[in-house]
Amino acid sequence: MGQSTSDTDDKMLRMKELVQTLRRASKAYYNDDEEIISNFEYDALYDELVQLEKETGVTFSTSPTVTVGYEVLSELKKVTHEYPMLSLDKTKEVLELGSWLSGQTGVLSWKLDGLTTVLTYEDGVLKQAVTRGNGQVGEDITHNARVFQNVPQAISYKGKLIVRGESVIKYSDFNRINEEIADIDSRYKNPRNLCSGTVRQLNSEICAKRNVHFFAFQLVDVGEFSELSTMKQRFEWLSSLGFDVVEYRMVTESSIREAVEDFAQRVEKNDFPSDGLVLCFDDTIYGRSLGTTAKFPKDSIAFKWRDEVAETTFREVFWSVSRTGLINPVAVFDPVEIEGTTVTRASLHNVSILEEYELGEGDRITVFKANMIIPQLADNLTRSNTLTLPECCPVCHQKTSIKSENDIRVLICPNPLCPAKRVNQFAHYVSRDAMNIEGLSEATLEKFIQNGFLHNLYDLYHLADYEEEITTLEGFGQRSYNKLIKAIDKSRDCSIAAFVYSLGIANIGLSNAKLLVKHFDYDFERLKRASLEELVEIDGIGELIAKSFVDFFAREDYNQTVDCLLKEIRFEQTEVLEKDALLFDGMTFVVTGSLSIYENRNAIKAEIERLGGKVAGSVSSKTSYLINNDITSNSSKNKKAKELSIPIITEEDYVKLLQEGSN
User: Which among 27, 90, 111, 158 is annotated as catalytic?
Assistant: First the structure.
């Protein structure tokens, strides 16, 4: 019996809603590096759309079930893929993986959560690196791939080679990078977003510092060399050329469950992000003979973790105020055990997502861990919808307001004097790479702000006016106070670069600050008056950074703060060398291993930079010298230097270079 017209119309309407929601989510995720709905929600909506398309026999032209990726929006050069990339069909059922093999031997590997990248080699040299993009057109990131931590610059095979893989930033590096960012609100959300932004940087120096790794997962084209008829052979051959390949296991229908369980047990312990597994046929000739559907290749399938969902009781929303004034909702619920840990909170991100759950105290909710790691709400089973948004900021108690950004509703505190905004600004100013004032933790700064000791940055230099009040605060005594004042006085002598960085100008880190002050010969007044046109001419300073700098000094209140700070501090006398005295101008060094002459790597790095050179984190074709006291070691940096015929020198050799250059 056919469906009623009303029933069909309802389904069509729902399908249109789903297409719009999924396309908006895909655009935010792939093009804007934002996550407006969770992976759990996306998968559920996608599966619902697939089912409705089956039931109605209708598929809209804009449906994500027939389109791949999204339009590429970038300033980087666009490149059409020689071999277009399709998405993978997916399942969450282990039994389906087994039946999919149909008696064939398979290769099961990690599905890494980064940015798919295609490398092309010709005559044994890396010629091009391109992002996946929309599957048809990607972005040329060759300049950044050359500074990836483990991408071979030269290989022994001299024919044409095209290899696909995933570019990722490991959790250890992700945490290190975030820890270096004093402003909590400026920290990156997850390794994937950080990696996506990193490999698309116009300045490869930024990419080099973030330790991007590449793991090969598919040999696409190997020219005339056709002896590799299995995936296992291809992985082994790629390894022999110097590529790191994704970890994999050979499986059959009878062993697939055990293999999946083994991978699952190691997800949380891995140093690299992954969001599932990939199963492909070992026999590449057989796999290729199966062809493709309009959207999926038939030789491989993705397995996504079936998230462990637990039911609990919702209690309240905790509202967290950020440095930018955003008031972010966090769901608080009764403790529940998920994936081996106890969870009591989950971020709701913004007002739009919060309102979708129709929450109220006492509601029964389901909670899961995205990719077995990040707690998130899956659904609200009760939907009492009794929750109200706070009318006042939980920190300063001033009236809140709703703001719409890209169709996303957010709650903000418009009060410019809200202490929550001030704490992070002060914390950044006193951080190690900025003014380096020890003894001023965020908790201490919050106390000082709440007690009225601090209103603006320059008030830090007048804390001695509150000696009696500070020494009577809990956790403070005369000794702590004396130590703090000494640290503040010590900070009065600072470098211009550290001061520029300490101001918290958007998009300007310490390395950018160094570039700026060096270009203007360490003359702060010249730098302060620089125009947008002058700034964009500096190598390594793009329009976004230049605009942030100009906009900052266009504000009268910021200028007043800077002028008051300048009355409290003294810039260190920086030696401005003439061009012919820049011994290492245009040269790039990499320093590795233990040092015996210099106190640490920062000391030798500072000297090289003072003499016009650069210090990179990894060896590339642009490296002039690798400094390593153990010249004969088989370290990866030594191997790469030898492959690229880059001189490996000891500290003593480096000192000789200095002496020869000064003669």
Answer: 111
Three-point CA angle 534, 540, 542, nearest 5°: 60
Q: Where are the alpha helices (DSSP H) in 61-218?
A: 94-101, 142-145, 171-179, 191-199, 204-209
* CA angle, 34 then 351 then 372, to 5°: 55
The pair of structure tokens assigned to 411 is 């709650």
Q: DSSP assignment, residue 297?
A: B
- Rounded to an integer, what distance in angstroms lies between the CA atom of residue 130 and that of residue 141? 6
CA distance 525 to 502: 16
pLDDT single digits (tens) 258-294: 999 888 888 877 888 888 899 999 998 898 888 888 7
pLDDT for 166 equals 96
Alpha carbon distance 535, 515 (integer Å): 10
**Residue-wise pLDDT tens digits, 159-205:** 899 999 999 999 888 888 877 765 555 667 788 888 988 888 888 88
CA distance 204 to 263: 34
5-56 to CATH, choices 3.30.2320, 3.40.50, 1.10.287, 2.100.10: 1.10.287
Q: Is the pTM of this model over 0.85?
A: no
Domain 310-412: give its CATH architecture. Beta Barrel (2.40)
Determine the residue type at 625: Y
Q: Could you give the percent of the chain with pLDDT greater than 90?
A: 30
Fold (CATH) for 78-303: D-amino Acid Aminotransferase; Chain A, domain 1 (3.30.470)
Residues 6+ apart with CB under 8 A from 586: 612, 613
Please enumerate in sequence order all residues whose Cβ is within 8 A of that of 172, keeping only pairs 6 or more positions apart, or say none.
271
Is 111 in the active site?
yes
3-state helix, strand, coil in the chain (%, to 5): 35, 20, 40
Of 243, 268, 271, nearest in space to 173 by CA: 271
User: Residue 241 and residue 234: Cα distance in Å, rounded?
Assistant: 11
Report the C-alpha gap between 151 and 167 in whole angstroms: 10
> Measuring CA to CA, which residue among 614, 631, 632 is closest to residue 623?
614
Instruction: Tell whether the model's pLDDT for residue 69 goes beyond 50.
Output: no
User: Are 140 and 120 a contacting pair, CB within 8 Å?
Assistant: no
How much is the pLDDT for 93?
A: 84
Percent of the chain with pLDDT over 70: 89
Q: What are the domain boundaries of the chain?
A: 5-56, 78-303, 310-412, 419-491, 496-571, 580-662
Q: State the helix-helix crossing angle for 191-199 and 171-179, rounded to 10 degrees.
A: 80
Q: Residue 556 carries which side chain, given as an amino acid letter? A: E
Domain 496-571 class?
Answer: mainly alpha
Distance of CA 77 to the CA centre of its chain: 22
Q: Is the pLDDT of residue 127 over 60?
A: yes
Average pLDDT value for residue range 544-568 = 91
Q: How far is CA 404 from the centre of its chain?
A: 25
